[in-house]
Specification:
This protein is mainly beta. The protein has a domain of about 55 residues: Double Stranded RNA Binding Domain (2-Layer Sandwich). It is about 10% helix and about 20% strand. It contains one helix and six strands; from the N terminus they run βββββαβ. The strands form two sheets. Strands 5-2-1-6 form a four-stranded mixed sheet, with helices on one face. The termini are far apart.
Length: about 120
Amino acid sequence: MVRSVAQPGSASGLGPEGRRFESCHSDHIMKKAKIYIPNKNPMQSGNGKTDKWILEYETVDPTNNPLMGWESSSDTYTELKLEFSSAELAINYAKKKKIDYELIQPRKRKIVKKSYADNFLK
C-alpha cells in the first residue's frame, strides 16, 4: 500500500498565484427566507400553537434526484425552521443576519355562526 504524504514547503507546480478557492462562508451566499405563521393542523379544533412565527429558508438551488425524482438540495439551511414569538423578532433576526426575507401575513378566518336549526331551513 502506497500512501502519499504532503510535504511542507511551497507548491511551485501551481504557479505564482497558487491555489484559489471560492468562499462558501455564509456572508457570501445570499440567503432568502420567508416569515409566516403556520396553518393550524386540520385535526385541531382550537387555535393552540398558532401564535409562533416561523423563519424558514428557501431552497436556493433545487435539483431532481435522478433515481427517485424527488427534489433535493445541497443547501442545509433549508432544513432549519426557526421559531419566534413575534414577527418583529423574526424580522430583526433576518436583518441582523443579512437575510433577504418575505413576510407573509396571516389571513383572518371568516367565522360563520350557525345553529343546528339552520340545517333544516329551506
